[in-house]
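Standup notes
- HV: blocked on the assembly model, inputs below
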Amino acid sequence: MAKMTLDELRKLRESKKKELDLRSPDNKSIHVVVGMGTSGIANGAKKTLQAFVDELSDQGLTNVSVRQVGGMGLDFAEPTVEVAVPEMPTVIYGNVDEEVARKIVRKHILGKQLINEHIYDRPAADIVEGTE
Amino acid sequence: MAFHHYVLVCGGTGCVSSKADDLFGELAKALDQEGIRDDVQLVKTGCFGFCEQGPIVKVLPEESFYVGVKPADAAEIVSEHIVKGRQVDRLLYKEEDSKVHAKVDDISFYQKQFRIVLRNCGFIDPENIDEYIARDGYLALERALTGGMTPDDIIEELKESGLRGRGGAGFPTWQKWGFSKAVEADQKYVVCNADEGDPGAYMDRSVLEGDPHSIIEAMAIAGYTCGADTGFVYCRAEYPLAIHRLEVAIKQATEAGLLGDNILGTDFSFTIEIRLGAGAFVCGEETALLASIEGKRGMPIPRPPFPAVKGLWEKPTVINNVETLANIPVIISRGGEWFAKVGTEKSRGTKVFALTGKIKNSGLVEVPMGTTLRDIIYNIGGGIPDGRAFKAVQTGGPSGGVITADYLDTPIDYEHLQELGSIMGSGGMIVMDEDDCMLDVAKFYLEFTVEESCGKCAPCRVGGRKLYNILDRMAKGTAEEEDFGRIEDIGQAMKRASLCGLGQTAPNPVLSVIKYFPEEIGAHVKEGRCPAGVCKGLIQYYIDPEKCIGCTLCARRCPVNVIAGERKEVHVIDQNGCIKCGECFDACKFGAVIRR
């Protein structure tokens, strides 16, 4: 990335804002977001991430973006994964090992069903959304 | 085919014991009766917290959060909410149920948590600067540099926000920055203290791992405000992932022109370097930290002069902790007034706690200042596992103290914690239940500070060791009544005469358990008894010959093979070889192993 001017910074912010807004109803693509802080990784988040990548490729799904983020602090339920599928509510899954990851691809992303026993609540409302 | 609605029923143990299973069955029945079983997915979830108000039902996509739902309410939720689209108001979680004071109008939330510091953790890829920028990242720096904000405006904004240092002592941030700005000097520095050392605290690590750009942005703003062009992040080498992500972030910010020369086309320049700490706890103390950056042995020096006036290489230096800095971009971009609405009068904003120990939902929680311990432990943390009773919570790590069940409803802020003889510290919160011995807890923290004392001043070096020896005697049953007076004397001397915070606060865990658990500590000294059955010098394991059926399980589990006895014969523990690990006690299915 080259050095940005003020205008370029502002433009980048606006364009990326739309892309990142998983919870927006206009969001048309599928997102899998894996928590990769120290506690997530210690609980197997790297294997979970790999399982998503493998299963998505096994199922021939190419329209899914898999991303890493830091931990959201739900350490008792690591690894945690946020899944956003258009026309479905965006949910956070906890205790996602490789098997659950594969289940999420088959049942949630392909079958449009939520997975029992693994949904957790977002710990807090997002304060950034309210900013103009 | 996607469903119209998703009905989530909390499957945490708290909710299950309050009939969540029956509720699940009733909801399924009601969906069948309405003939909409195929349109609605009924899902059992993990624990939602809020266990005191369970069972919890959440209906998506509306995000309706129902609490205290009884099996009899199932039909109403289905016929009213799902079929007719009308929320069942009487079951909805109401904000007045919460004692949390976050009067921020533009955010509707039923959550107990309120996240300013952790706003981006779990949202953005920390190794992608674009994602930080998309979430209003570098907006504050942009406003400061190009929006006509003078350094004085920034200090004024911080003053209005009421932000105080999150590293422990709670010094007002605006004053610190103001002191440094006021000094004339050819060179000034900004330092980020990421030498997080309290046992059980890891919020700084999480911020660096999840949102490193927020620290970079805040340090640049501090540089602009105070007139510094160089920043250092002092991070412990035990945090390799945090260091890696920070390195990536610094590189990206430099390439994007958000660090380096002439940032955003202005004449402000700022660079950041990382310095690794070797893990000495005392290097979290600011003067010791600065010595370590200079390449000297990490030992504190007396203040004043404070680092803001005379710090790194004797130049004015602003030192802020990671969590403090993470607040800065939000305060500048949303305004000090907005920030000041959160929290209590003297303690504004939020605090991140690392909730660990005997707690169901361990992890990081960020709550408005003034939230009660009860809310944190029972509503967010889900309470104590295995039906055990809450005993105390330790805050402030080796510098803090314990808070007992009597004070569960005390609002948590700097002032109230100090009144209780503890401190905010960096925000470690270790929950203890009835199986924990408070003497053992105090001994653990003291052992830590004795180990970590740099040895420069005698009150800390000698006093800490003496205190530890007394506690060790207590734990072995060889202490005497007079030792209580000695603890008091040594403790007060250390508090008054130690050179830095480490020694001054080291007696706190001991003094605190003696104050709040006099009977338990007294039992060790007067009766040679450890009520919680933890102190190995005071307990013995016996096998009750009446109850032992000779199953041999204890003998097989014993790691030192000191349990003798043939199959179907009464077993006996050889007290001479017993290491009191308690394996036999836990293993026996007949209650035949007795601890006393």
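- HV (later): unblocked. The CA atoms of residues 471 and 481 of chain B lie 12 Å apart. Chain B touches chain A through 78 residues (CB under 8 Å).
- Next: hand off to the docking folks.
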